[in-house]
Design brief:
The complex is a heterodimer of chains A (256) and B (659). Chain A folds into two domains: 111 residues, Beta-grasp domain (Ubiquitin-like (UB roll)); 134 residues, Orthogonal Bundle (Fumarate Reductase Iron-sulfur Protein, Chain B, domain 2), CATH 1.10.1060.10. Chain A has eight helices and seven strands. In chain A, the strands form two sheets. Chain A has a five-stranded mixed sheet with strand order 2-1-5-3-4. Chain A has a two-stranded antiparallel sheet with strand order 6-7. In chain A, strand 3 and strand 4 form a beta hairpin. The termini of chain A are far apart. Among the domains of chain B are: 154 residues, Succinate dehydrogenase/fumarate reductase flavoprotein, catalytic domain (Flavocytochrome C3, Chain A, domain 1), CATH 3.90.700.10; 124 residues, Methane Monooxygenase Hydroxylase, Chain G, domain 1. Chain B is built from 17 helices and 19 strands. In chain B, helix 4 crosses helix 5 and helix 14 packs parallel to helix 16. The chains are: A alpha+beta (256), B alpha+beta (659). At the A-B interface, helix 1, helix 2 and helix 3 of A face helix 3, helix 5, helix 6, helix 11 and helix 12 of B. Chain A: InterPro entries: 2Fe-2S_ferredoxin-like_sf (IPR036010), 2Fe2S_fd_BS (IPR006058), 4Fe4S_Fe-S-bd (IPR017896), Beta-grasp_dom_sf (IPR012675), Helical_ferredxn (IPR009051), SDH/FRD_Iron-Sulfur (IPR050573), Succ_DH/fum_Rdtase_N (IPR025192). Chain A: Pfam families: Fer2_3, Fer4_8.
Chain lengths: 256, 659
Amino acid sequence: MSTGNMNLTLKIWRQKSSKTNGKLVDYKLSEISPDMSFLEMFDVLNEELISKGDEPVVFDHDCREGICGACSMYINGRPHGPKEGVTTCQLHMRSFKDGDTIVVEPWRAKAFPVIKDLTVDRTAFDRVIAAGGFISVNTGNAQDANNLPIPKVQADSAFEAAACIGCGACVATCKNASAMLFVSAKISQLAQLPQGQPERYRRVQSMVAQMDAEGFGNCTNTGACEAECPKGISLENIARMNRDFLSSKFVSEESI
Amino acid sequence: MAELNANIPEGDLMEKWTKLKSSMPLVNPANKRSIEVIVVGSGLAGASAAATLAEMGYKVKCFCFQDSPRRAHSIAAQGGINAAKNYQNDGDSTYRLFYDTIKGGDYRAREANVYRLAEVSANIIDQCVAQGVPLAREYGGLLDNRSFGGTQVQRTFYAAGQTGQQLLLGAYSALERQIGMGKVEMFTRHEMMDVVVIDGKARGIIARNLITGELERHFGHAVLLGSGGYGNVFYLSTNAMGSNVTAAWKAHKKGAFFGNPCYTQIHPTCIPVSGDHQSKLTLMSESLRNDGRIWVPKKKGDDRSPIDIPEEERDYYLERRYPAFGNLVPRDVASRAAKERCDAGYGVGKSKLAVYLDFKANTERYGRIEANKHNIHNPDKETCMRLGREVIKEKYGNLFDMYKQITGEDPYELPMRIYPAVHYTMGGLWVDYNLMTTVPGLYAMGEANFSDHGANRLGASALMQGLADGYFVIPLTIGAYLSKEIATKAIPLDHPAFVEAEASVKSIVDKFFAIKGTKSVDHFHKKLGKIMWDKCGMARNAKGLTEAIAEIQQLRKDFWSDVRVPGEANEFNPELEKAGRVADFIELGELMCIDALNRNESCGGHFREEYQTEEGEALRDDENYAYVSAWEYKGDVTFNLHKEELKFENIKVAQRSYK
């Protein structure tokens, strides 16, 4: 059951380090099973490369169930490949055909420099969160959870924004390498909850400032981010963030 | 053999923690600023501890091997988190959560720790909600609950099938806040390679920068490990690919005893293995057992499609064997029951190593309720199923999508096929009541320690324990140790102990490259996994375990003479990382078999075939084995057993029954 009948040509971006140039390198793979995940197909390739004495392809991956946000391949011109609503680790080879040529590149964005092969540095996202993507409540300060009823519709909407896995597909697919979908998802989650109100305007200002400082581009409403997001994060979040950002300019300095 | 001192506070069970909290030595704010704490791991336990300690004023350094602390494997926990809130008014209480956990763990956990866990459980929910974690709510705006295995109350809080993600992102945001304020220094893509021990105390770590390959020395007045469990010793498990035992194992080799290594949890509801290419197994949350009924055909080798098998020809074996708890028996019981049916020839699917998890009955039931709400009287079956599917989708949509993506089958139409898989390890570094290991100044929390789940963990209790340890326990108990360390100045990094530890790490790395063998690291990892699954998995016996020990010893020799690690040490090299982790798994695997062989009884997830009741249930031997096995490393992969006797003063120890 282990082997299948798919033969593939892979064109994979190989780059030794951030200091060297990279290029696409061709590899042939045979007997790939349609039940394999895309990353398991890469495991087979790497096993072959190691046995030949070559260096395996380096790529980020961890949970392999679509929730950690580590995997990040740009497959045939689309982040996470051709299927909607899945990450690369959940993409299965049955989504491809025998004889296909598959081009695999890293995320490309100024704010996400390549570390090696298909691995990029996404720590810019962490710095944006550190700038304000939180509610300032120290451990031990909380009241009883049910003292703060939150309408279900509002809580559900906050949850939908909070489902972002921070993979960076939105940035990778955007022609401007904008991080607005990622940043707005966090802002929007907290802005919809009563707990998030005290810091609402201060938060949007600091996170947007950090986003700009990291070198992410601006949003021109193309909507590619929403289309490619494996978790279906909505463009509405960007509208909410923009509204809050604008409002924050009218709020008096003291309340920020 | 030496007795271990668990440092359990004196007094009544219900007052131990309260009294200790108010009498715990404190460190004043000025002194906290000059005390440095190292936290290894950034999951629920690590992130919550790092954030809380920084809030209190300590200088914190936090390390994770992932590219961001948000990717720690806690993120993948699906079903929920338990807390004794009694919001459902169904008779829950701190004592009941304590009782369920001790019983669920088959009377092999420490009473005092478990009671404290139950006590702080309610604070965790408060804290998370205050952070903006969007837990599921009812229309009235209050928090919703659901049922989990091994309990008869509804005390599980959740966020769809992504509870771990939401809780971790809460802890991560608290951590990032401290990073932004400069109070935590974060080291991502760093792996802990060794603990530095000076004059018997943990004083720092050696870490490898995974991008540059550089070895770094870091000093700390105390070192906290929140580095997770070791389920990947089986190669195939529900753990992330990177989850590993290295930090805990290095600590073990530096003097920290390893507690109950043989207690592993095999989760009953995972997607079955589909082929040799498989790299990991995917869990289908226990919450599905709220609405899914588990069955196999009554006839052996029945190859009909499940929808063609009529009701009377189905064996709902959990409901048959355990009428009181039905499909919601604890995980160890459900897993063994599935194995029993498959071994007896009733398994389904191509491999025959699977059982059905069927949502049809409850889909229809929900549909009927919905129809009522919509004023549809006498709805036909189709209408019920259509409306019911909407309800099921809201509850478990992401899990159903995941199942479909992996198997290519639609679980709204066909029952899921599931089989048990390695999921969690109850064993871990031995710690006392303060969560300190046998090395002073070295602490372990979350899945990395052994302390709260006995021989079997109940569902939705891992998230509870990780956050309890990190938010509420360690930040206080560590004061007892650090209050005596205020005079200790930062130890210079050229101290001989740092130099020596770094040199020994470097020599191991060099050795990997010197072997120039013929087989990949994965080759050895898969072999180890197969030995462990076959002989130290869901069922164990003395013969198999003895064989496994010899096989693992041989595997270790083969590994160290024939592994091939490509590339170089001073670069980003995931194969090198894997080699180090698998080397440690091989040694741990041997200890797990030794521990399983030593424990001549069955309890929880540890099922020795020689010790079972007539009905095939686990048969404990309380007279001889009511102890924690704490193994001391004696060099050259040999171990000495120490015992911590378990005393049950508040619970009557009994044969566990879910009938």
